[in-house]
């Protein structure tokens, strides 16, 4: 009987050893083969008992410029978002942010794994249609559009916000500014409407020019000081016509920086009524208001101090809010897909944007 009991103990010990070995082997195997994900994602998924964090995968760094991936909560009060550029998290990502200007013509650098049913692809572009390549095959590929246009799913742009009470913003004094008209330009194309207009305008009024094209590149500080010292700034967008109806809502920092820095923008791009959807009609001058560049030059030279002050009445009631590209755009994209769980797809992207 004693021998039998000893054999049973040995058998039980052997079974326990084998069981322990199998458990240890499977643990090591799973941890070796499974994709390694950042610890922060595990923490977010395990510790958030109410709702999982929303994961937004940045597929391309827009223009190859990186930004802080942990800024959504601290800078924009957007909580519950985890931004990442780790493509190993593709199958777990709730959204994939894709910058149009980085897409290959044959789409070969887009994700090629099956798309999870819950995942949304966000198309992102903030250049004008005239300066962005139309790529075939994008229809029915994206779920969400992010753009400067008001009819995009996610609209991100500089804007004026109402003050809670009237403020006494200092009015820029015309006579204290050292330059009459300024223009900063790097992308020069003789076929662009802004270049054609400038070539005539400069014959009738002095235009102080800066930028790479004129071999006068400015630092950030120099940029600010230059615009502040100008009475008028040529906020000429990169469009094909002086009043381009195809450039829907396309207004860039060329407009908003002068407004913020206390200079009157002279605009060329979309028609006047497009600008008036976003800024007061008496805050800017449109080239369409004049029959020729010469007539515009005569008007600018004839504005007195009282008339000049009228361009800044908006500063009593509004504040300019900027946008931090592309950090804020990523946070807004994550916020959108976090708040909207319904199915959606954009079926006619090329027609919508390029007509």
From TrEMBL:
<keyword id="KW-0472">Membrane</keyword>
<comment type="similarity">
    <text>Belongs to the glycosyltransferase 10 family.</text>
</comment>
<dbReference type="InterPro" id="IPR055270">
    <property type="entry name" value="Glyco_tran_10_C"/>
</dbReference>
<protein>
    <recommendedName>
        <fullName>Fucosyltransferase</fullName>
        <ecNumber>2.4.1.-</ecNumber>
    </recommendedName>
</protein>
<keyword id="KW-0325">Glycoprotein</keyword>
<dbReference type="GO" id="GO:0006629">
    <property type="term" value="P:lipid metabolic process"/>
</dbReference>
<keyword id="KW-0443">Lipid metabolism</keyword>
<dbReference type="GO" id="GO:0017083">
    <property type="term" value="F:4-galactosyl-N-acetylglucosaminide 3-alpha-L-fucosyltransferase activity"/>
</dbReference>
<keyword id="KW-0808">Transferase</keyword>
<comment type="pathway">
    <text>Glycolipid biosynthesis.</text>
</comment>
<dbReference type="InterPro" id="IPR038577">
    <property type="entry name" value="GT10-like_C_sf"/>
</dbReference>
<keyword id="KW-0333">Golgi apparatus</keyword>
<comment type="pathway">
    <text>Protein modification; protein glycosylation.</text>
</comment>
<keyword id="KW-1133">Transmembrane helix</keyword>
<feature type="domain" description="Fucosyltransferase N-terminal">
    <location>
        <begin position="53"/>
        <end position="156"/>
    </location>
</feature>
<feature type="transmembrane region" description="Helical">
    <location>
        <begin position="10"/>
        <end position="27"/>
    </location>
</feature>
<dbReference type="GO" id="GO:0032580">
    <property type="term" value="C:Golgi cisterna membrane"/>
</dbReference>
<keyword id="KW-1015">Disulfide bond</keyword>
<dbReference type="Pfam" id="PF00852">
    <property type="entry name" value="Glyco_transf_10"/>
</dbReference>
<feature type="domain" description="Fucosyltransferase C-terminal">
    <location>
        <begin position="175"/>
        <end position="352"/>
    </location>
</feature>
<comment type="subunit">
    <text>Homodimer.</text>
</comment>
<keyword id="KW-0812">Transmembrane</keyword>
<keyword id="KW-0735">Signal-anchor</keyword>
<dbReference type="InterPro" id="IPR001503">
    <property type="entry name" value="Glyco_trans_10"/>
</dbReference>
<keyword id="KW-0328">Glycosyltransferase</keyword>
<dbReference type="Pfam" id="PF17039">
    <property type="entry name" value="Glyco_tran_10_N"/>
</dbReference>
<dbReference type="InterPro" id="IPR031481">
    <property type="entry name" value="Glyco_tran_10_N"/>
</dbReference>
């Amino acid at each position: 009987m004693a021998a039998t009991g000893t054999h049973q103990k040995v058998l039980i010990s052997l079974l326990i050893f084998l069981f322990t070995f199998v458990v240890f082997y499977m643990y090591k195997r799973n941890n070796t083969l499974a994709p390694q994900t950042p610890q922060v994602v595990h923490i977010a998924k395990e510790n958030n008992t109410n709702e999982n964090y929303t994961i937004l995968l940045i597929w391309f760094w827009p223009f190859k410029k990186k930004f802080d991936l942990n800024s959504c909560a601290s800078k924009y009060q957007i909580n519950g978002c985890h931004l990442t550029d780790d493509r190993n998290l593709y199958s777990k990502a709730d959204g994939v942010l894709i910058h149009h200007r980085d897409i290959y013509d044959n789409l070969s650098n887009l994700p090629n794994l099956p798309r999870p049913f819950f995942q949304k692809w966000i198309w992102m572009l903030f250049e004008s249609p005239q300066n962005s390549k139309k790529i075939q095959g994008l229809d029915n590929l994206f779920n969400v559009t992010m753009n400067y246009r008001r009819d995009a799913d996610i609209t991100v742009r500089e804007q004026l916000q109402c003050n809670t009470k009237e403020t006494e913003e200092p009015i820029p004094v015309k006579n204290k500014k050292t330059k009459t008209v300024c223009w900063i330009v790097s992308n020069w194309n003789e076929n662009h409407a802004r270049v054609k207009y400038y070539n005539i305008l400069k014959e009738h009024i002095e235009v102080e020019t800066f930028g790479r094209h004129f071999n006068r590149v400015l630092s950030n500080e120099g940029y600010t000081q230059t615009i502040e010292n100008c009475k008028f700034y040529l906020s000429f967008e990169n469009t094909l016509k002086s009043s381009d109806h195809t450039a829907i809502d396309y207004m860039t920092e060329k407009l908003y920086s002068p407004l913020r820095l206390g200079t009157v923008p002279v605009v060329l791009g979309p028609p006047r009524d497009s600008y008036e959807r976003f800024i007061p009609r008496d805050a800017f001058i449109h080239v369409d208001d004049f029959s020729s560049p010469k007539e515009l030059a005569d008007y600018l030279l004839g504005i007195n101090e009282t008339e000049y002050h009228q361009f800044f009445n908006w500063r009593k009631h509004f504040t300019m809010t900027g946008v931090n590209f592309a950090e804020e755009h990523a946070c807004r994209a994550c916020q959108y897909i976090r708040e909207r769980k319904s199915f959606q797809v954009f079926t006619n992207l090329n027609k919508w944007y390029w007509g």
